[in-house]
Structures are given as C-alpha cells and as structure tokens.
Amino acid sequence: MTTVLVTGGAGYVGSHNVMALINSGFNVVIFDNLELGHIEIVEVLKKVSASGKVIDFIEGNLKSFDDINSVFNKHNIDAVVHFAAYSQVAESVKDPQKYYFNNVYGTLNLLKAMMEHNVYRIVFSSTAATYGEPEYVPIDEKHPQNPINPYGRTKLMIENIMDDYDRAYGLKSVRLRYFNVAGADSNSRIGEWHNPETHLIPNILKSTFGSDKSFKMFGTDYNTKDGTCIRDYVNVEDLAQAHILALKYLLNGGETSFYNLGTNEGSSVKEVFSACEAVTNKKIKLEVLGRREGDPAALVANNQKAALKLGWIPKKTLTDSVTSAYNWEKELDKNYKY
Ligand code: UDP
C-alpha cells in the first residue's frame, strides 16, 4: 500500500486532503507543528481512518531537519503532499523573515530529508499569488509569475527550487496553484479554522453568530461589474481531488508540471455576500470600508490545463461551498467555542 506524508495535514486544505487520501485507500502520515493546525482535526481524521487505513500523526517543525528526517526514518514514505506554510499576505509583508524561514527553508529541509530517503515525488501547495497583479484574466499557466508580496515570492522560490532539483537530482513535483479555496467537508467533520479569520466566506458567515456583529466589506470602488473584487472560489473537496489525481500521476511516472486550480468563474464580494444571505436565510449586517491594501480587482483561473492533463473537473458551486462552510461554522460555534 502507498504511504503518503502530508505536511500541514492538521490545517484547512491539508486536512481535507488527508480525508480524501484516506478515502482513496492511501496510508497517511501527518506532520504538523500545530501552530495553525488543530489537534481536534487530527483526532477526527484518526477516527475516520479507523476503518482500516493506517494514519500516524507526528508533531514537528519543518525548520528542524531532525524533526522531518525522523518521519522518514520511522515510515516508508512513497510520496509527499506538502501544505505546511504560512499564508497570510499582510503578515508576510510585515515579517518576511518569518515567511522565508518557514516556507522556503522549511521546504529545503523537507526536500533534503526526502532525497536522503529516496523519495522523489512531491505534490506542492502553490498559489495564484505567484502570478502577482494579473495582466489578463482568466489567468492560465503561461501568465508571467511576478509575485507582489513575500508570501507569493516564497511559493515561487519553492517552485523554482523544485525545477532545479528535478534537473539536478530527478525530483518530480506537481505544483498546484490555488485560487480562493472555500467550503468544508460535506459531512461537517472538518473545515476552515483560522484564528483570527481573514477570509471572505467564513467572515461573512461568522457575522451571523451574535446579533451585534457586522461583516466588513473592503472596497466597492473597483473597476468591476459591481465595484467589488472578483475572485475564483474553488471548493476544498474538489481541490483535494486534484491532489489525488496529481499524486497518482506522479506515482505513475509523471513528469514535473504545474496547474491552476480554480473554476474558470469569478464571483464578486457582493455576489458571495448574497449567496451567504441566501444559504443562511438571514439578513446579514454589512459595513462598507475602504480597500484592503494589496487586493487586485479580479483573479480568475483558466483551469483547462488541469482538465486536460489531470482530468480534474471541479464539480461544486459557490452555493455548495457556502453551504458546507456554514454547516461547519455551526459545528465550530457549538463544539469548539474559541
Ligand atoms: N474581503 C472582505 N471582507 C473580509 C475578508 C475579505 O471584503 O472580511 C474581500 C477581500 O478584500 C477580497 C475578497 O474578499 O476582495 C477575498 O478575500 P480573501 O481574504 O478571502 O482572499 P484573497 O483573495 O485575499 O486570497
């Protein structure tokens, strides 16, 4: 049976991937330092996997070579899916050192440990932020990569490092450039859990808990159809399926490659807000503020390459994502009061 190491498997995107890997019959080892991930999520995943698939959780930090190397000493790893990273754009501008050390140096340690144990296949969690300010939309993979903040630069550096390692050592990578990830497990067992939360959908939904809360909309004067920013919201379970396909592609001897993961469709902040009101059946209090620094007006993926080469077709709609996100928010509110 194939054993997959998932770094950052206790986090939002990572945990949904662990769920999908377990359901696809893989053995899974989670490596996470629990700084942003949650042990409660690991416990849920362990329960799900009790039906037969082996799952181990190892707490450790990628900045420590010994921590990550010991995982490969303990388990016979066949491939890695690498999520562990900081991902807040604003924080990366304020404290770039934190990002370069964790994201870039941490990945260097991971790649070193992999190759010392003859593991040469990795699926990497990259981002649309590597493209920077869009020169055209929808953005395809040929769009120039000129990230405009340290977060995006760390992810692009890692992509470049992976290309160099392929040329020199034969390390095969698939880099998946996510647009805006949304939604939660359809059965509400796991979901997005950031503290503080900065993302649009959970923030709108959170404002429905407690009567005094309002949702803050950043900017209504963009050059878009309704003045608010347009993003491409891709469902987290659809996203997980893309990772499974990428992993299988690598395990079948696939070459290094990279794909956009998005839906080809943009939704404005106002449209997302309306979808949240419709799903929750509540009138949500709205406060319009000025623009948030660094937000491009529109980011939409051209996802044809992933469809053609990986056979990945996202199936869920924005309403599906808002519905599962809302169900998860109710779970968070009830069971994990924070
Ligand atoms: N946004 C907002 N209020 C919030 C959070 C986000 O108006 O509380 C807007 C944000 O300005 C952007 C869009 O929603 O235009 C998506 O932001 P998010 O942080 O979810 O993702 P990003 O596109 O920044 O990765």
Protein model, in words:
With 338 residues, the protein is of the alpha/beta class. The chain has two domains: 3-182 and 233-261, Rossmann fold, CATH 3.40.50.720; 200-231 and 265-301 and 308-336, UDP-galactose 4-epimerase, domain 1 (Alpha-Beta Complex). It is 41% helix and 17% strand. The protein has eleven helices and 14 strands. It has helices spanning 12-23, 39-49, 65-74, 89-94, 96-116, 150-169, 200-206, 236-251, 269-280, 304-310, 318-335, and strands spanning 3-7, 27-32, 55-59, 79-82, 121-127, 172-178, 180-182, 215-218, 230-231, 233-235, 257-261, 267-268, 286-289, 298-299. The strands form four sheets. It has a seven-stranded parallel beta sheet with strand order 3-2-1-4-5-6-11, sandwiched between helices. Helix 1 crosses helix 8 (236-251), helix 7 (200-206) crosses helix 11 (318-335) and helix 9 crosses helix 11 (318-335). The longest helix has 21 residues, at 96-116. It is globular, with a radius of gyration of 19 Å. The chain starts with a strand and ends with a helix. The mean pLDDT is 96. Uridine-5'-diphosphate binds next to helix 7 and strand 8.
